[in-house]
Amino acid sequence: xxxxxxxxxxxxxxxxxxxxxxxxxxxxxxxxxxxxxxxxxxxxxxxxxxxxxxxxxxxxxxxxxxxxxxxxxxxxxxxxxxxxxxxxxxxxxxxxxxxxxxxxxxxxxxxxxxxxxxxxxxxxxxxxxxxxxxxxxxxxxxxxxxxxxxxxxxxxxxxxxxxxxxxxxxxxxxxxxxxxxxxxxxxxxxxxxxxxxxxxxxxxxxxxxxxxxxxxxxxxxxxxxxxxxxxxxxxxxxxxxxxxxxxxxxxxxxxxxxxxxxxxxx
Length: 266
Prior knowledge:
Blueprint: H1 3-12, E1 19-23, H2 27-30, H3 39-43, E2 52-55, H4 57-63, E3 72-75, E4 77-78, E5 91-92, H5 96-101, E6 106-111, H6 118-134, E7 139-143, H7 154-166, E8 171-175, H8 181-186, E9 192-195, H9 203-215, E10 220-222, H10 225-228, H11 233-246, H12 250-262
C-alpha cells in the first residue's frame, strides 16, 4: 500500500481501528428524503461527531463547507430512482478526475449481487478499483439489496462482501443481520462497516444492533436515517460514537442519549 492510499485510509479509519461514517447520499435515488430536504442544515450540528461524510458530488459542492476538513467518501454510482423499474440498474456517474478535483478520501459504489444487474454492477466495481488504485484512492463497496429486504441474511451478505473484497474494494459496507453476522465479517478479508437500513423503532434498538455488530467484528458504521431522522439526532450521534470509539455498552450509550436529550441537545 503506497503513501497516498495509507494516508486516505487513515483519514477514514481512526487510530483505534474504528470509524463512524455519516451518509447523506440518499437523494441520489430517493430525491428530497425526509429530514434531508436541506442537507446542509441537517449535517451542520452532526459533523463534529462523525469521522467521514458519504455524499454525492452535487450535494458536496452545494452545501458542504470546503474549509471544514471532514474526510469525504464520494458516492460515484447511480442512474436509477425509486420510481424506476429496478434500483440495481446502476452505472458509474463520476470520474476519477472529478474525485481528485474534489480531494476525496474514498469513493463508494453499490453492487447488487443476485440481481438482474449483478454482472453490470460488479463490473462497475472492478473498473472503479482499476482506476482508483492508480491514484491511491480507496473504494468502498456497498452490498446493496434494493427493495429486496429479504436478502439480508448472513449467507447472502457473506457472498456479496467476499466478492466485493475479491474485486479490490478496500472497505465493504453491508447490513447487520443478527445471527451469523460474525461469519459475514470473518469471511471478508477487508474491513466491514455496517449500514443502517430502515429506521428502527427505538433508540435502544439502534444502539443494540450497532454494539452487537462491533462485538462481532465490524470496524464501524455508516448510519444516516437512524441518526438524522430521529427527534434528537445530536444526542443519538454522540451515543453511537460512544459505542464505536469508547467501548460503551448499549445501556451506557442510552444513558448518554437520554442525558443529552434532557439537556436540550437537538
